[in-house]
Recover the amino acids of this structure.
């Protein structure tokens, strides 16, 4: 058995379409091994994706964040280099790497240094979605019905 059918779990649920899609796509897609990457937690709500992209320059890379997805694409432009390689061990092949981002996770920056692409992410939960403490006010005196004492 190579897959799971999550349909029975989602028959009686409403609004979990994104979760069903994530589970389904994660089981179907085999992640390619190129380019290698790390995902690290750099703070309470901060993350960093680091990709090894040796041979790629700024103009060869594209980072697109849309909705809850992040797509990183690399394509080295053909050059008129007349070099004759005896061995070519540095991969320069095109790639596309996709990441699903949780709600409220935003890309805050990217940098390329020493053959490593760093993409910084931050979870920014809106104030209206954060938990808040509700003060319990003491009740005064007896019960009141329509402004009159009961």
């Amino acid at each position: 058995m190579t897959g799971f059918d999550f349909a029975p779990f989602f028959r009686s649920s409403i609004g979990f379409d994104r979760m069903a899609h994530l589970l389904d796509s994660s089981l179907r897609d085999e992640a390619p091994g190129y380019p290698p990457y790390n995902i690290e937690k750099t703070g309470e709500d901060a993350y960093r994706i680091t990709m090894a992209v040796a041979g790629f320059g700024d103009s060869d890379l594209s980072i697109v964040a849309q909705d809850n997805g992040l797509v990183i694409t690399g394509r080295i432009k053909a050059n008129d280099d007349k070099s004759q390689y005896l061995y070519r061990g540095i991969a320069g092949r095109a790639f596309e790497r996709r990441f699903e981002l949780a709600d409220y996770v935003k890309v805050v920056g990217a940098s390329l240094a020493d053959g490593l692409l760093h993409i910084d992410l931050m979870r920014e939960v809106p104030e209206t979605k954060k938990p808040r403490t509700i003060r319990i006010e003491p009740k005064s005196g007896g019960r009141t019905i329509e402004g009159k004492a009961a």
Remarks:
- The first strand starts at residue 37 and ends at 41.
- The helical segments are 7-10, 17-28.
- The chain is about 10% helix and 35% strand.
